[in-house]
Amino acid sequence: MKTLSAVAAVLFAVAQDPQAGTTYYVGHSPKFVNISFESEADVETIVGTTNQATGEISVDFAKKTGSVSLTVPVASMKTGIDMRDQHLRDKNWLDAATFPDITFKSKKIEFIKDKPNEADVAGEFSLHGSAREIKVRVHWKELAEEASKKANFPEGKWIRFTTTFEVKLSDYGVKVPEMAAAKVSDDWTVKMTLFAGTSKPKK
Fold first, then answer.
1. What is the pLDDT at residue 157?
2. Distance CA 93, CA 89 (A)
3. Which one-letter DSSP state was computed for residue 22?
4. Which single residue of 61, 73, 113, 119 could bond 19 by disulfide (Cβ 3.0 to 4.6 Å)?
């Protein structure tokens, strides 16, 4: 009886704590995904965007643990010029036909002391068929239930995650041709704002 009572107490505690081991899903709608990537070269600045991403972000705030898995399709990336988008996807650049997705999978998450809404997330970032370990600082904000309902979000709890990090194309086997070096930088800045909810996206 004591064992059963202890198990019941643990289950009750978890039920009362919505943050205990919660999984948030990314990809409900394009309006919940805002990703930009920017190249600043000598004679041209390129700003691209995508509103497509899928994945899961699991967090246990009490234990300060979690995991992240995200996928972004290369074909969804836009720069505002159709011909430039075609070049971006062809085999001399990101080669979307061979490597259709950019992915990130976490390996370690460290919550920042004295900053309850920030964590350093280290993991494997894959681009153009190559994978490298990176670390990014992630910020989050839990959305009030009333606010998410007014915004017509799907049922469930919602969190907004944001991060900014740098990607060096040559680290992933993408070489900028000399003739394009003045217009395209090897270093790109990526900014992400993801709204993730506890309900699974509809297929």
1. 96
2. 6
3. E
4. 61
**Is there a contact between 54 and 71 (Cβ–Cβ < 8 Å)?**
yes
Tally DSSP H helices, then E strands, for the chain.
3, 10
Compute the distance between CA of residue 187 and CA of residue 70 in angstroms, rounded to an integer: 21
Integer CA distances (angstroms), 54 to 26, 51, 143, 151, in order: 5, 10, 20, 21
Buried/exposed code over 69-99 (b: 16+ C-beta within 10 A; e: otherwise): ebbbebbbbebeeeebeeebbeeebbbbeeb
How far apart, in whole angstroms, are the C-alpha atoms of residue 56 and residue 114? Answer: 26
Domain range annotation of the chain? 19-197
Q: Using an 8 Å Cβ cutoff, are 77 and 48 in contact?
A: yes
Run means of pLDDT, 10 residues per run, the chain, 203 residues: 42 40 96 97 96 97 94 97 95 96 97 94 98 98 94 95 98 93 96 97 84
DSSP notation for 112-154: PTT-TTEEEEEEEEEETTEEEEEEEEEEEEEPPHHHHHHTTPP
Q: Which residues contact 124 (CB under 8 A, 6 or more apart)?
A: 103, 104, 105, 107, 131, 132, 133
19-197 CATH:
2.40.128.110
Residue showing tokens 């979307």: 96
